[in-house]
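EI: anyone free to look at a 417-residue chain?
SC: sure, send it
EI:
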Amino acid sequence: MFDSDKIQEIWITITRNKVRSLLTAFGVFWGIFTLVVMIGSGDGLERGVMKGVKGFATNSCFLGSAPTAIPYKGFQKGRVWDIRNKDIDMLMDSIPEIKFLSPVLWGQMSNDNIVYEDQSGAFHVKGLYPNYAQVETQHLSYGRFINDIDIEKKRKVCVIGKKVFEKMFPRKENPIGRDIRVNGVYYQIVGVTNGLSDISIGDKLESSVLLPFTLLQQINNQGDVIHFLAAISRDNVPANYIEDRIKQTLKSINHIHPDDYKAIWSFNMEKEYNMYMNLFSGVSILIWIVGLGTLVAGIVGVCNIMLITVKERTREIGVRRAIGAKPRKIISQIMWESIVLTFISGICGLCVGVYVLHTADLVWVQKQENMFILHPMITFKIGILSLLILLISGALAGIIPAIRALNIKAIDAIREE
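SC: here you go
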């Protein structure tokens, strides 16, 4: 701990040249302020972008049929083909690395195709299996999701998205058990869902009406056609692997050339997720390099001012050495002056940086829709790390001046005018 005399000495030294001290302190202030704002903004950017994939299984992929591009086994180029119900069983039997495989079906969408009493609107219709909730996490406001009994018995039930609920039920009453008309057919509402992700395959679930897959397949009157597949790989199995295996198997079953890369479209969530993670790792490294570089410039300023201070106090240091001051006392005095100057200016920069991030979040970010930056802030861990960097930087900035002070000979200092 400091005694009152030591505190007074440090304060007198720092305030001896106020302008010089303020300019040097501003360098450290600006360095830590820049570092905090850049880290907070980077974390906010990561949080905003990753919100887009939140809710989707990161080890998932989606696949669908497309016209062929290569003639094969007597079939001409441009042949239109479909994934069928029988393909599901063959895929599950031949690719044990698949954890879940969920077929998806589109329903008809037209003007005001969804009606409830005097309310109407145009919304997408999808046919899903219960295991689709493993692919895209569902947040249910009311009721339940589609279950196995709905699929087996082809029940005339539906789950509506949050936006459908808000449009059809403006008074926010409980819709469970109510009958809603979808493309001219009445279904009983069993749940209200809201997808967590901003990514949509076709359209977001919050803007859709979801029916049991088997029921919609019967209503569409298209036989056993499946519009696309959603697949999840088992733990420790890359989604790339099952994506490639599914493509190979579907091509073999449906007589498609093995090198025809246009016959099956796909979207790999794992690739997107890894791309984002690599991007933010690079951004984080860049932020730390730039921020620490700015802080180092401030620390160099502290080192310079302490060297000047030691030069100005040569006679004083020499006299103290002559009357018996120990080297440890001289070194600690210079070191503590450097640490205090660095720490005080750094704390101010840290506080102002946190305040700027908080203010920006309140008055700008939260009021904008579809912002890439979400809640810019620094974590408690980063705050503690910043304080540690300040203490270490202050100590490093004082090492050279302290050594210079220690090398001052008493007789030379006394002769100095």
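EI: The chain has two domains: 4-53+274-415, 60-268.
SC: 👍
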